[in-house]
Amino acid sequence: MVTIDPSLIVVHGRSRPFDPTGHAAARGINDSREVTGQRDGRAFIWRNGRFSSLGVLPHYFESAGLFINNRGQIAGTCTRPALFGDAKWVDAYAQPFIWERGVMRRLGTLPDCPRLFPTGMNNHGIIVGHGRGKHMHPVVWLKGYAYEFWDLVIGAGGWSVTYALDIDERGRILAMVARPAAPAGQPNRLHALLIPTTSVKRR
Q: 60 to each of 38, 79, 94, how far by Cα in Å?
């Protein structure tokens, strides 16, 4: 039988209090056991048994940390609602950020794409994700700039990247790919590994 206590985190075989209030939602952890997520509407980093708020970008209401790498960099999103018909509010704007050494910085955005979400980050600070507008936009952030995959992928053989899932230390990206005109009996959607043709460099 296994007993789960959400208020504790185990470090070196010993339990420590994490968040007895239950207000924190953890999203990511690194090899140093630093944790990120959201607590009371703000992204946080949890280290050495203490919570520290990362704050929020100007003009946004909430923030959430999604990934933390072994350099202590955190990728996440800041969101704000927008009025949508009949006075209904929706999370219409999502601005991705990277946080490092106490500073939260905006990541690049795409035209006509008001919502962008990181889905993975490696220890070089390279981030992948997707944008949501009229269509889904797979994105990679290099040195803070956003690039759509159709600008970067070559030799795809009729396949197009629809969704980026994660990235490893060699810059290889796990993605969902699709082709609209698949031959009979063959799949039109697959998981694929995108392999970079140049070396991955640190930010």
A: 15, 6, 9
pTM: 0.81
The pair phi, psi for residue 150, each rounded to 5°, is: -65, -15
Rounded to whole angstroms, how far apart are CA atoms 113 and 200? Answer: 27
Does residue 120 contact residue 166 with C-beta atoms inside 8 Å? yes
What's the gap between Cα 17 and its chain centre?
26
Read off the pLDDT of residues 42-81 as tens digits, 9 standing for 90 and up: 999 999 888 999 999 998 999 999 999 999 999 999 998 7
Asked if residue 118 lies in contact with residue 27, where contact means CB atoms within 8 angstroms, the answer is: no
Q: What is the 3-state secondary structure (H, E, C) of 99-115?
A: EECCEEEECCCECCECE
Q: Would you state the structure tokens that stand for residue 167, as one six-digit string?
A: 């990235």
Picking from 9, 13, 36, the residue whose alpha carbon sits closest to that of residue 24 is 36
12-31 CB burial, b ≥16 within 10 A, e <16: eeeeeebbeeeebebbbebe
Query: What is the rounded CA–CA span in Å between residue 95 and residue 131?
Result: 10
